[in-house]
Write a structure and sequence with these properties.
Structural class: mainly beta
Number of helices: 0
Largest sheet: 4 strands, mixed
Distance between the termini: 71 Å
Radius of gyration: 20 Å
Number of strands: 19
Strand content: over 45%
Shape: elongated
Order of helices and strands: EEEEEEEEEEEEEEEEEEE
């Protein structure tokens, strides 16, 4: 008979493979390969400028972003002690709302903990901006590219989304 093979759980930081239709016949062995797609580690950086179109005046810490899937559903994940999120889903059970906060590294560059995401389109919304900058509470799309290997077969999994803020002015 025919059966559908569905991977219900993928290895950590991989996306489950596509379901496969399998024909099973008596006294025959069938070999099925399910490809798991590695997820990217996406970080966010924040930069400020006096106004749009001007060069960046400083790297910023303290911006907070929510992450949404392609259907604009809020994402939840398992948060580790370093603030990184894995096992990301729209299902909140057993997970924490993904909120990424930018920080400055030892060189003064803006960075953040990572969130593991499968290739595809996502949205971010800034829910907090560092003073004196104004948060941009609109949804903005970004694309997570497929993870690639280099000549040494090492996975290139780091991707960064840079978000710009402009000084707020009085009304």
């Amino acid at each position: 008979g025919f059966y559908v093979l569905v991977e219900t759980s993928a290895p950590a930081n991989y996306t489950a493979g596509e379901p496969a239709v399998v024909e099973v016949e008596a006294k025959k062995t069938v070999m099925i390969t399910i490809e798991n797609i590695p997820q990217a580690r996406v970080t966010f950086s924040k930069a400020g400028a006096e106004k749009e179109g001007e060069p960046v005046s400083q790297e910023l810490a303290g911006a907070v972003f929510e992450i949404y899937d392609a259907n604009e559903h809020l994402l939840y994940g398992v948060k580790d002690a370093d603030g990184n999120y894995t096992d990301v889903s729209t299902e909140p059970e057993g997970r924490t709302k993904v909120e990424i906060t930018t920080q400055l590294d030892s060189t003064g560059k803006s960075t953040s903990p990572y969130v593991t995401l499968a290739p595809g389109t996502y949205y971010y919304k800034e829910i907090k901006a560092p003073a004196p900058y104004m948060p941009d509470s609109q949804l903005h799309s970004f694309t997570v590219a497929k993870v690639k290997t280099d000549e040494s077969s090492e996975w290139t999994i780091a991707q960064t989304v840079t978000v710009y803020n402009y000084l707020s002015t009085g009304q």
